[in-house]
């Protein structure tokens, strides 16, 4: 895979899958816009990028900050070839306690609305470059998570899946491909934050919910994202790639 002179935007690039993705695209010669809320963390990831890169500090749940990502990328690089909507949050909440509603609002704003907004803002530029979008969803968008209190997260990822299909449908006539990746457990912050203050939860618990008895490394997901963004995947659009170590099948 080579992304020489391509311009890639990665949201949530300060950690986990987003960081691995930004570093991989850079290794494959792309220029990268790294988007996140924490400049110190972004700078550490940027230090591992060997091509031209741009750090944009943005909270993607805020519209003006989303606009700034596109503006700054175009000022710096003049075009956009790949958009990776990766940033995501997981907030617990149940129907019985009623706190699912506030969780829903926050989770939808980051996991869905921001991805939709960024795709809209990038659309003309992706059409001009015959570019591509990869949305990072989750196995939880296909089957509700068994913990039970992550329903708003599952709902957001299911919405993202349908958005990806619709975007693929609409943008295919302009030569833009849109695909989704749906990981199971990956060794990143988001999953351990799920455990909260419960110190009895370990990686073994997450391994145990998969058929292959393993948790993915962020780099494995980054490789799939890069493949889908590459010309090797030129025939693939509107697809959802489940990469979950057999997590869904085990349920
Ligand atoms: P992570 O917590 O390391 O990464 C999420 C990133 O999104 C963080 O850098 C975070 O700061 C950023 N982010 C969150 N809200 C933001 C906002 N409002 N503005 C800007 N940035 C924001 O965890 P990760 O596993 O790398 O998560 C990446 C994606 O993968 C997420 O969409 C997540 O839902 C998805 N995913 C993760 C797993 C897993 O087990 N780790 C499984 C399935 C899907």
TrEMBL record:
Which Gene3D superfamilies does the annotation name? NAD(P)-binding Rossmann-like Domain
User: What residue stretches are annotated with the Ketoreductase domain?
Assistant: 6-189
One GO molecular-function entry? oxidoreductase activity
Superkingdom of origin organism:
Eukaryota
List the keywords (alphabetical).
Oxidoreductase
Q: Which GO terms describe its biological process?
A: lipid metabolic process
Which Pfam families would you find in this protein's record? adh_short_C2
Which PANTHER family does the entry link to? EG:BACR7A4.14 PROTEIN-RELATED, ZGC:101858
In its UniProt entry, what is this protein called? Short chain type dehydrogenase
The species this protein belongs to is Papilio xuthus
Q: According to the entry, what is the taxonomic lineage of the organism?
A: Eukaryota, Metazoa, Ecdysozoa, Arthropoda, Hexapoda
């Amino acid at each position: 895979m080579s992304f020489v002179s391509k311009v890639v935007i990665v949201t949530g690039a300060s950690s986990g899958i987003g960081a691995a993705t930004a570093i991989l695209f850079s290794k494959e010669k792309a220029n990268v816009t790294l988007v996140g809320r924490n400049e110190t963390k972004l700078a550490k990831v940027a230090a591992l990028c060997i091509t031209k890169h741009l750090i944009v500090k943005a909270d993607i749940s805020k519209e003006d900050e989303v606009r700034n990502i596109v503006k700054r990328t175009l000022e710096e690089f003049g075009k956009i070839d790949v958009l990776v909507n990766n940033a995501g949050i997981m907030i617990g909440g149940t129907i019985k306690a009623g706190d699912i509603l506030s969780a829903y609002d926050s989770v939808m704003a980051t996991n869905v609305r921001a991805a939709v907004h960024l795709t809209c803002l990038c659309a003309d530029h992706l059409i001009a470059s015959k570019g591509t979008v990869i949305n990072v969803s989750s196995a939880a968008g296909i089957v509700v998570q068994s913990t039970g209190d992550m329903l708003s997260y599952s709902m957001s990822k299911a919405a993202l899946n349908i958005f990806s299909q619709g975007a693929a449908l609409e943008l295919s006539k302009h030569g833009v491909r849109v695909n989704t990746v749906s990981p199971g457990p990956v060794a990143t912050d988001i999953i351990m934050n799920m455990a909260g203050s419960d110190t009895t939860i370990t990686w073994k618990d997450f391994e145990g919910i998969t058929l292959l008895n393993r948790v993915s490394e962020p780099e494995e997901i980054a490789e799939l994202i890069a493949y889908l963004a590459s010309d090797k995947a030129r025939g693939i659009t509107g697809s959802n790639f489940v990469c979950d170590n057999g997590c869904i099948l085990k349920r």
